[in-house]
């Protein structure tokens, strides 16, 4: 969430923020605020599809700084769209804004667009480092506040709603959290920060009742918007509504201050709401309706004494209370661990998904179109229950579209479902290292589905990028110095955005199927421990690197000349496998073959990677419920829910 103009007002008044030397404490971190702040504030690549290796290194440095100061982080992530739909207009506006910014970046202008796999890299790095993490079902603000309140520790975020929550440990704005410059002796390092508490703000306004701060937020307008009638009320209060045009941030800040002065004249929210009814017309529906709407909005800031997340972070083995009904327990647990994408929650709860904008050729269809078949499979697994059932999911990107859910055509193992949807044969992956199976399979799918069809140099550059981490960074032709500008090949950017859309959706499908294929490392494996300009590491994708390699190939360099010693064989294996995967696998050609396959699947037996899936299912109805496949006796053992 966020309260309009509140950050500008508070940060413009230093008396509300206290300098602190932060160390030896728990810290509840708003995960989404953190990865946005780190990525954008350190000027990491957006134009070329993202540099996930640099981002993972930055994350490693951040959490190392916390450890050096004996700060114990607990990261909380937002999940899906708020099911009340109250925030949907705000989300749509942001989506449209990001689409415009992505288009601006594609033309070499400024913009702020987070690369599509940033969140996945963030979760991978935290999981690898053992950082405690939870993903909430929907927006996490109130859960974060309740946890910090119970633990009496501060919250680290950039969300202005935390100027409203009454937190005994306070709120540390990321803007003032100087983690890159540790102070103090080695055994007593600390991070310089500024801490906000509601005590200071309320004292300044003559002992304002803290319980009135949520009313200020709702009247001013947050991500849920202001209730109808709020503008009329503010006009009646003579709060200078027209002052918005008086300079950047000035109008909103003035409104907040005057509103706080007015609220300070009341002893309680009840008294203030009674005055609202009187001003709007005592006895008229408008006044009572607005008061009711304001009261409902204020409840978004209500803090419960016992946090549902405290038990989770204390070693709970089940998803926190309030998780999604309709998901099997194992999937709920995976989602809480951050191992199931919010797209799954949005599909189950809303039948609506907001796809992530990317830098692409805006004259062509969205890069997400290439992954449509993968998303249809996700929707089918989650929503369809019978042979003849049909349903649609509303997708928002560029122009909204309703997409039909398509379950797999035949009852298959979990691995079989993944391979069928990707349109590849398992034998094509035999030469590929197991941890790269999904990446290569997705590359084959991309060759089938991308429009325009990827060129040979585009494919070569992508595969070279997968193996190129064995060379030192200072010898990479795709490497560029910080701040160096490079012209963007929009065709290459569009093609790589299609590949990333395919990988992002395939990761979601693989997670939903309980990982029949191991997830690829999206960034460096050893960069968690060695972060220096010359570190050697494997990385799956680096946007600036792949664009640089593509430029070399277009300039006439042979792909083999760009490889270091010993990596030629891996490159050839990956390239050949991707091409073989690009030859679409054929479905069974006759009813007899389908019957034979069904008989084979009916026999009991288990295998690695999701084989033998249907031995535990009973009856047609259960077979057509994809969740029955996920929970079947034989295959659920392959997935660790603990």
UniProtKB/TrEMBL annotation:
InterPro entries registered for this protein in UniProt: Asteroid, Asteroid_dom, PIN-like_dom_sf
Similarity-based family: Belongs to the asteroid family.
Superkingdom: Eukaryota
Chain ranges passing through the membrane: none
Organism field: Mola mola
Stretches assigned to the Asteroid domain: 135-203
Region (Disordered): 586-616
Basic residues composition bias: residue spans: 594-609
Any Pfam family the entry gives: XPG_I_2
Protein name per its UniProtKB record: Asteroid domain-containing protein
């Amino acid at each position: 969430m966020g309260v309009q103009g509140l950050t500008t007002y508070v940060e413009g008044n230093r008396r509300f923020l206290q300098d602190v030397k932060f160390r030896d404490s728990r810290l509840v971190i708003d995960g989404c605020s953190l990865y946005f702040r780190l990525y954008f504030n350190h000027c990491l690549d957006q134009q070329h599809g993202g540099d996930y290796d640099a981002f993972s290194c930055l994350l490693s440095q951040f959490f190392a700084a916390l450890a050096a100061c004996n700060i114990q982080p607990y990261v909380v992530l937002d999940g899906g769209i708020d099911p009340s739909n109250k925030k949907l207009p705000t989300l749509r506006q942001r989506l449209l804004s990001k689409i415009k910014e992505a288009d601006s970046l594609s033309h070499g202008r400024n913009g702020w667009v987070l690369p599509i796999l940033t969140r996945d890299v963030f979760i991978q790095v935290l999981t690898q480092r053992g950082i405690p993490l939870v993903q909430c079902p929907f927006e996490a603000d109130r859960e974060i506040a309740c946890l910090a309140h119970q633990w009496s520790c501060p919250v680290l975020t950039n969300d202005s709603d935390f100027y409203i929550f009454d937190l005994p440990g306070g709120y540390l704005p990321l803007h003032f959290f100087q983690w890159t410059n540790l102070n103090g002796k080695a055994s007593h390092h600390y991070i310089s920060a500024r801490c906000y508490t509601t005590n200071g703000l309320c004292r300044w306004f003559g002992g304002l009742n803290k319980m009135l701060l949520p009313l200020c937020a709702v009247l001013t307008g947050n991500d849920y918007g202001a209730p109808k009638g709020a503008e009329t009320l503010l006009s009646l209060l003579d709060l200078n509504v027209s002052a918005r045009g008086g300079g950047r941030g000035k109008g909103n800040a003035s409104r907040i201050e005057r509103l706080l002065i007015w609220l300070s004249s009341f002893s309680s929210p009840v008294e203030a709401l009674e005055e609202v009814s009187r001003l709007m017309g005592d006895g008229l529906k408008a006044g009572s309706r607005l008061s009711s709407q304001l009261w409902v909005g204020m409840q978004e800031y209500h803090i419960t004494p016992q946090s549902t997340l405290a038990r989770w972070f204390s070693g709970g083995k089940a998803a926190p209370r309030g998780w999604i009904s309709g998901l099997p327990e194992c999937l709920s647990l995976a989602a809480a661990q951050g191992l199931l994408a919010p797209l799954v929650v949005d599909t189950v709860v809303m039948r609506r998904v907001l796809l992530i904008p990317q830098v692409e050729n805006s004259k062509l269809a969205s890069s997400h179109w290439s992954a449509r078949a993968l998303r249809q499979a996700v929707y089918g697994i989650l929503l369809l229950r019978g042979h003849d059932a049909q349903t649609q999911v509303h997708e928002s990107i560029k122009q909204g579209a309703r997409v039909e859910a398509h379950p797999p055509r035949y009852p298959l193992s979990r691995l079989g479902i993944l391979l069928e949807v990707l349109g590849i044969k398992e034998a094509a992956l035999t030469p590929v290292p197991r941890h790269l199976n999904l990446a290569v399979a997705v590359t084959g799918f991309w060759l089938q589905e991308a429009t325009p069809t990827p060129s040979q140099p585009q494919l070569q550059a992508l595969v070279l990028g997968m193996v190129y981490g064995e060379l030192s960074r200072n010898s990479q032709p795709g490497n560029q110095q910080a701040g160096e500008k490079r012209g963007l090949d929009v065709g290459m950017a569009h093609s790589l955005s299609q590949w990333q859309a395919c990988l992002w959706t395939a990761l979601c499908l693989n997670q939903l199927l309980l990982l029949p294929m191991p997830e690829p490392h999206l960034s460096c494996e050893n960069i968690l421990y060695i972060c220096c300009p010359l570190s050697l590491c494997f990385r799956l994708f680096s946007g600036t690197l792949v664009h640089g390699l593509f430029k070399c190939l277009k300039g006439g360099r042979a792909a083999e000349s760009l490889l270091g010693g010993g990596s030629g064989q891996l490159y050839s294996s990956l390239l050949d496998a991707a091409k073989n995967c690009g030859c679409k696998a054929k479905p069974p050609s006759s009813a007899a073959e389908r019957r034979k396959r069904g008989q084979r699947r009916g026999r009991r037996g288990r295998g690695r990677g999701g084989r033998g899936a249907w031995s535990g299912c009973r009856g047609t109805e259960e077979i057509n419920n994809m969740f029955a496949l996920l929970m079947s006796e034989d295959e659920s053992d392959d997935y660790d829910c603990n």
